[in-house]
Amino acid sequence: QAQLVASGGGVVQPGGSLRLSCTTSRFSLDYYAVGWIRQAPGKERERVSCISNSGGSWSYADSVKGRFTIYRDDAKNTVYLQMNNLKPEDTAVYYCAAGGPRCEYYDYWGQGTEVTVSS
Predict the structure, then answer these.
(1) Which residue has the higher pLDDT, 55 or 90?
(2) Which candidate, 98, 107, 80, places its Cα nearest to that of 18?
(3) What residues contact 102, with CB distance under 8 A and at least 6 apart?
(4) DSSP β-bridge partners for residue 17
(5) What is the C-alpha end-to-end distance of the chain, expressed in Å?
(6) Is the per-residue pLDDT at 105 higher than 80?
(7) How many C-beta atoms surround the C-beta of residue 55 within 10 A?
(8) How far is the C-alpha of 80 from the C-alpha of 58, rounded, in Å?
(9) What is the Cα 80 distance to its own chain's centre?
(10) Which residues, in sequence order, are CB contacts of 44 under 8 Å at separation 6+?
């Protein structure tokens, strides 16, 4: 059973934008780093981005640097992934996960939200 709720996926044309959200009503995300991991059909899971529990550090996969931005709004208990200039190769199911304060491991997972980039 998913402990986090990921939303915001959809179908978008190349060059378009989407914003994914990750939240939970079960606990406060304040204490956890939160990351986004994606899996495309027939491919292994890829760590896309992660933000530390303090929000003071973050990381991105090389494939999304300069296009994706991760940020958190602790007042809303939500972490966002703003995705700009989307490419067909960004097509995947995106999962959010929460865990160790510096993204070193994940304990809690969301159910995934599907992103399709296609003309």
Answers:
(1) 90
(2) 80
(3) 33, 52, 53, 57
(4) none
(5) 34
(6) yes
(7) 16
(8) 12
(9) 7
(10) none
